[in-house]
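Friendly challenge for the regulars: who can give me the structure tokens for this chain first? No prize, just bragging rights.
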Amino acid sequence: MLTSITISTMILTLGQTQAESFSAYAPVVLLALMAILFGVGNLFLTTIIGPGRQGKVKGMVYESGMNPIGTAKRRFNVRFYIVAMTFLVFDVEIVFLYPWAAVFPSLGGDQGSQYSLLFLGRMLFFILTSVIAFVYAWRKGVFRYD
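First reply, four minutes later:
Bragging rights claimed.
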């Protein structure tokens, strides 16, 4: 049978463990809060401080100091979008590759050869699939603007 002291000790220990695990997320929550406040603050200050006068010249479209020719609703070739999407795919690959490259030298530890070879193999597989995707896109003519 559990006594009230044992139960209260268990509850106190559980509360401390939860508080410690939540305190690890405090920097992430603080960063998210700062980002939200920065965005909302910029929108709010722009409406207060920004210029409010409207006119014919201010409402006109600006294209590098030249008067616009034609409409802005011109259709673009779909290849521009495909190249942009391909760039995003390889950009995200670099985002995943950088942290791995930063941590890889510290995998040496006691069982370094075992874990480092495992993670090296996984990353080489990741890079190989990306290279195959790049070659496939190249052969399909994604990067040609003919």
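The chain has a mean pLDDT of 79. Residues 9 and 15 are 10 Å apart (CA to CA). Your move, everyone else.
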